[in-house]
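W.,

You were right to be curious about this one. When I first looked at the sequence I had no strong expectations either way, so I just let the prediction run and decided to look at it fresh. Below is the sequence, 131 residues in total, followed by the output.
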Amino acid sequence: MGKGQTGPGNGKWKDIGAFKEACEKYMLKCEEEDDIPTVISWCEYLDVSRETMCQWEKNRPEISDYIKRMKARIFDAKMKLAARGKMNPTVFIFEAVNHHGMINTRSEGKNKNDNTHSGEIKLKVERQVID
């Protein structure tokens, strides 16, 4: 790879305005077609690979922030669907970890917010009689 190149697709979307416009059209298309936006389908819509998009996010400062905001919008749409019970929780977690940089701390052992229970329950019952 030569100096200044960021990988496959480097020649695509040099016009930042056209790139942003295409991204907005993708989100509108998803809304109009009642489709769930995903990073993969967004990349396909723009005719670039997910790997290229990740490279651009790291190496093209002129569009890096916009890519991050698009990913956040895509994640937000999925989060709202999951909260409404319209997206499978397992799929949502997979998407969050694999496409949006979230970390599943529960699978890495106990953390400070661990709410597991020992299984032992002690009840104290008091009865007060009022005349």
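Here's what jumped out at me. Helices lie at 16-32, 39-46, 50-59, 61-83, 89-99. And, maybe more interesting for your project: The CA atoms of residues 116 and 122 lie 16 Å apart.

Coffee later to discuss?

I.
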